[in-house]
Amino acid sequence: MEQVTLKHKRTTLERADKFISPVYFNDVNLRGRLYRDSHPLKSITHYAAPGRVSYQQAVKGKFTKTETGQSFGPTWSTHWFQLEIEIPDNMKGEEVHLLWNSNSEALVWQGGNPLQGLSGDYDRISFPLSKVLGKNKTRFSLYVEMACNRILGEGKDSMIGPPDMNKTFTLSQAEIAVFDREVYELIIDVETLHDMAKHITEETERGYQALYTMNQMINMLDLDDRATYSKAHQLAKKFFQQRNGQSQHTLYAMGHAHMDSAWLWPYAETVRKCARSWSCTIRLMEQYPHFTFTCSQAQQYEWVKDNYPGLYTQIKEFVKKGRFIPVGGTWVEMDGNIPSGEAFVRQFLYGQRFFMKEFNKKCSEFWLPDTFGYSPQLPQIMKLFGISRFLTQKLSWSLVNKFPHHTFWWEGIDGSRVLSHFPPGDSYEMHGKVEEVLRTIKNYKDKGRSNKSVYLFGFGDGGNGPSEDMLVRMSRLQDVDGLPKVQSKTPQEFFSDVEKEDCGNLCRWRGELYLELHNGTYTTHAKVKKMNRFCEFRLHDVEFLASMAHIQSLIKKAAYKFPTEELHRLWKLLLLNQFHDVLPGTSIGLVYEDAHQYYDDIVGSCQKLSSNALASIIADSAHSNPVSMVINCMGWQRKEVVTMSQSTGTPAKKQKKSPELVQIDSQGNTLAMVTVPSYGYAEAKPIKCEKPCSIDKKQNGTFILRNEYLSAEIDNVGRIITLTLNGDERNAISSEPGCYGNQFVMYDDIPLYWDAWDVMDYHLETRKPLLLSTKKTTIQDQGPLRVSLVVEIKISDQSSIKQVISLDTGSPYLKFQTQVDWHENRKFLKVEFPTSVHSMSATYEIQFGHHQRTNHDNTSWDWAQFEVFGHKWAAISEHNFGVAVLNDSKYGYSTRDGVMRLSLLRSPKSPDKDADMGTHSFTYAVMPFQGTFQSAGVIQAAYELNNPLDVHTLNPPKGVQENKSFFSVDNPQVILETIKKSEDLDNALILRLYESYGGQAKVKLTADLPFTSVKRCNGLEEILDNEVTSDLEVIGRQITLSFKPFEIISLLLKF
């Protein structure tokens, strides 16, 4: 009788672990039999390419002999290898693999086609020669493109450290070998049983059944007797065929390769990462017919289409079969906080249109797994594009509070709802492991409401996506007793099943999805934020001007050609730079070299396009006298002080300027007050300043700046002592000791790890006011149109601030034009406005609306939001009084206990060691108001600060109108945000409006142009049905329409 050995769980598990280990006992364990009969390559030759060259260029290079053991570099360089391979007789008819490990990323090529990516990081070093190229072939000639970088870049001191630019990579393996598939299947059997035995709770019997089955298999296997292989496999098969119950939770498994469009590598490397990863996916699809793969970001598809047409053709075939699944509907996986509302719209517009054109598919789910918070206006914008579902997982990273749901309804600020899901495994890079499956069901917070969740598997960022190991592991987990069911499914199947069976049980979350981490990203790389805002406005303006030139040209049958392709190109550059690791400031320096080139391209190109459009609108003629024209690209009449250089003003003979009408400023420029109609232009005729502004210096050394709206007392370091509205003695600045407005403060800014990403709560404990001026504060401009003074403040021995504090006649705000010479190490610069306002909340502008957050720390959910995002303004108010802070390029705010803080500059050192170093210029303003911020015009004032009236010198012929308004609205509650040409119709414009106050509204839109019809349309510019458009009333050139709170409405006007 055989002795029955009592099993000790730990030793039995470790026995199995060593039995399949790639490290221990390889000479006698199962893993050591995976590859056999290895054989050297016939020859390897090498070419050091001058950059990321194409295959066609590379094969013309000069190749020289090389061998394993040699190293290649430096970082980011490219090396090509030509491999000549002959299969020896003893390998014929076997499954032969090329084993290549350059300890870097690489791509196998043949005949100009990329075949499969390789990566040393995840041991993805084998290419199945015989399976891909033919089992009966015995000779192969291949190329391998080696990228001198690993999948997560080459951080010198840590993963996110600035890259080590001088690394080399050793070619440690280059050979062929027979892959023993029977051994491979046994390894997966043992591994899966091992993991079930290890991770299934000891309160159930199933884990022990797995332990004993695994141990029995190992006992049964004689590695020198292949007859035992099939017996052992049958033992495992019998175990895995024991099925689950019908009520068991189901994981909807989807292949995925999260691909950052740039991060610890530049954009150009992402192009190659896509080819490496997606070629691996295609090879697996050829082998595994039930494998599905989800893939977002139209930009990356376009990169592959342009650079790898053969691979793209294969992708399109699998898209047709429903297995390679475009998701997301956006151009890139953008940042979820900082882009403007119109930029969000364009992400979906260009993304959805690309997928419709290329694949005849509209995405029904928004796919954004890895960004740093989600604006509460996103649900409505998604709905505009036919998207009613949302997937992410990033909120699992929150430091303080755990989000209470995984499947739920997300409701935006207008009431739009989308079905939302966070994969409860807290990752979009699962590996098909038992531990992950069990963690998924353990974490799931909506048990009883739904028994379904998404399981995303695959290596991201160049790890080549799902691997064969993952697919084979999950084949064991499809329906096995003791584990949730793991089924290969699609996003459509998951969301449809939830909608069909569970949606009535789900909870609702209203407002933003705030990530309690990475809130330093609202501020890092300030120049990127500044250029993003600036380019958003430049594209807004040029689209309006080009659209007016185009419609006028159609009506008058003139020769102006609308720059469709160029505007698409410029928008796509901006949208690319809004990727969620670029715009937040969390990429390496190389990325920002590219980003700023793109910004410069946008600005320069917009200037040319605007000039061409204006020349067409005004009918510019070289035979006419030059005239200064002021352009207003906003939807309301504006009366402001503008700067007209002496050299560009209208000649004195034609337009005499009285000293009462103009002011020569400290820079020698001519200032004038002008009035310009809504979305139009006017000849720059200065109007008399009825209420001049003034500046005085008091005996105590403070300065008083006044205009018809407000009065401010400023001390000699630029701080506001008092800020009052005329006719009201109330000081908007707090009267508590030591409280001053415009107080610069410095903080230590040392996070736990994520340097460019995180500002921690404890930074607030290190507040240091800046109190030392380096020069005497002086008056610069003395009115009547503008008064100003100059302040210079010391930050440190390396850094300083120079600020012009100014007040214009007719302006409701005090403006601070700021220049900072910044050379700090992990410091955070903010400016404070301690207000006298008593309120439980503050309001922040977001995309197409605004959002309230608390002004206190009552709960952990409150104090975790110590740093929040906002756009052009934030306000705090009580009944009939409030204070707003406006800005032209900042996104980070903090309001606590009535103190409003605007975040200005950070100085992290990873992943870009030079982040934010240098000179910065930006403008912010403070605006006290009576009534509400809505009625006081804070929203319009912030737009005006960001988009000043523009003065151009043009040559209009006689008879051209001196002023003209193309479009206007009669209700300030509604913002006419965008005027653009239709994407598909040459004779149509799209007008996008939104309700900005947060209430119902009725508005009359007046057009100066003779439109023939108007219809409501969705974000894709598809006309909506009559029920939706029935509230439109059209009388002549006036359109009346109604809005719900924060509603976005798009109109299609035909001409």
TrEMBL record:
One matching Pfam family is Glyco_hydro_38C
**What reactions does this protein catalyze?**
Hydrolysis of terminal, non-reducing alpha-D-mannose residues in alpha-D-mannosides
Which Gene3D superfamilies has this protein been placed in? 2.60.40.2220, Glycoside hydrolase 38, N terminal domain, Glycoside hydrolase family 38, central domain, Golgi alpha-mannosidase II, domain 4
- E.C. number, please? 3.2.1.24
* Major enzyme class: hydrolase
Q: Which UniProt keywords apply?
A: Glycosidase, Hydrolase, Metal-binding
Could you give a GO molecular-function term held by this entry? metal ion binding
Instruction: Output the superkingdom of the source species.
Output: Eukaryota
What SMART domains does UniProt report for this protein, alphabetically?
Alpha-mann_mid
Q: Determine if RNA-binding is one of this entry's keywords.
A: no
Q: Which residues form the Glycoside hydrolase family 38 central domain?
A: 516-599
- What processes in GO biological process is this protein linked to? mannose metabolic process; oligosaccharide catabolic process
The UniProt entry's sequence similarity note says: Belongs to the glycosyl hydrolase 38 family.
PANTHER family linked: ALPHA-MANNOSIDASE 2C1
Name the record gives this protein: alpha-mannosidase
